[in-house]
Each structure stands twice: as C-alpha cells, then as structure tokens.
Amino acid sequence: MRADAARNLDAVLQTGARLLALDPGTSVAAIAEAAGVDRRTVYRRFKTREALMAGVHLAKLDACEKVFAQARLDEAPVAVALHRYAEGIITVSRQWPVDLQQVQGEAAAARLRRLFEQLDAFMLRAVHEGSVRPGLPDRWARSLLVHLTNVAAHEMPELTPAQGADMVAQSLFTGLGPT
Predict the structure, then answer these.
(1) Residues 116, 29: Cα–Cα separation, whole Å
(2) How far apart are CA 168 and CA 148, in angstroms?
(3) Angle at Cα 31 formed by Cα 27 and Cα 32, nearest 5°?
(4) Which of 5, 47, 78, 146 is the most buried (most CB within 10 A)?
(5) Which of 41-45, 134-138, 147-151: highest mean pLDDT?
(6) How many CB atoms lie within 10 A of CB 134?
(7) How far is CA 148 from the centre of its chain?
(8) Is the dihedral of CA 101, 97, 56, 48 positive or negative?
(9) Helix orientation angle between 140-150 and 78-95, rounded to the nearest 10 degrees
(10) Are 130 and 156 in contact, with CB atoms under 8 Å apart?
C-alpha cells in the first residue's frame, strides 16, 4: 500500500472509531469528511458502512493483540504483566473507543473470545501465585479488570495511561488481593 493510501486508511479507521463510538449511526460521508478524504476513497476500501465498522473493530483487535503479546501475561511477574496490560489497553481504548462487544463476524468474535480466555488464564495464574484471592466467581476478576481499564480509559481522561494502569492495579489488588 502506498504511504498516502496507508495514511488515508488509518485516518478513516481512527476517525470512524471516534465517531462511531459517539454515534453508531454516523454516516460514511460524515466519517470521510472528518477524516479529510472523499467518501469515494472510503467506499473503495469499504463497500458498506458495516464493512467500515468491521474494519474499525479489526483494527482495535489487532492493537489489543499487540498489547497482550507485549504484556506477556503468561510469563511476566503478575504485577508487571498487569501494569503492562492495563497501560496498553487504556491507550488502545482511547485510540479505538468502539466497543468490541459489538464486533460482527465469527472470525472477529473468535479473536475476542481468545483475548478473554487469555485474561481468564492470567487471572487464574494471579490466584495461584497469591496476587488474587481464591474462591471468586468465574470470570469475576477478568470482568473487573476489563471494567477498571474502561473506566480509566474513558471516564478518567485526565490520567495518563501509566497513571490509569497504576489505579487499575491498585484497585484490583486491593479489592481482590489476599485477605
């Protein structure tokens, strides 16, 4: 892909993420205008508004998968991995503010399930290593982690991603830490 085409695609996807998060009914024309490209440029890459939305979701999934790999959830010390994960996901969530729960298509849904499975495995490891107390309901710790990172990303914009990650880790370990 040519450099200008890649820039246009990135602008369309990021603008689409921002506008679709605010209003899921945003038109392709409005996204194109806000991205500074002609709507024909958008339609050459995405045949429908749904295809554009799927492209935005895939871009966010790609970014999330990179964060998971960099966090090393299965091997880094629990506190370190948690902080890396939270800081990265806060950054991704701010850049791509769309809700992945709205993802369409079996392949994308399977990717999202794998990410949740990795978080569940990480939380189980945190229990086994004594960072999180045992006996919590299934998926409770993962759900809380996801919620806390969403709060830091979207409801606390004054926090840097690092500060947000500090708050997520402190809240998670204080609230779910060993008794």
Answers:
(1) 34
(2) 6
(3) 115
(4) 78
(5) 147-151
(6) 10
(7) 12
(8) positive
(9) 50
(10) no
Is 153 within 8 Å of 137 (Cβ atoms)?
no
Angle separating helix axes 106-128 and 78-95, nearest 10 degrees: 150
Topology (CATH) of 56-176: Tetracycline Repressor; domain 2 (1.10.357)
Query: Cα–Cα distance between 12 and 131 in angstroms, integer?
Result: 41
Tokens of 50: 């749904």
Whether residue 52 contacts residue 11, with contact meaning beta carbons closer than 8 Å, is answered with no
User: Can you tell me the mean pLDDT for 64-83?
Assistant: 97
Please tell me the distance from the alpha carbon of residue 10 to that of residue 166, in angstroms, as a whole number.
30
More confident residue, 12 or 4: 12
What's the CATH number of domain 1-47, 2.60.40, 1.20.144, 1.10.10, 1.10.760?
1.10.10
Where in the chain do CATH 1.10.10 domains reside?
1-47
Residue ranges, CATH 1.10.357.10, the chain: 56-176
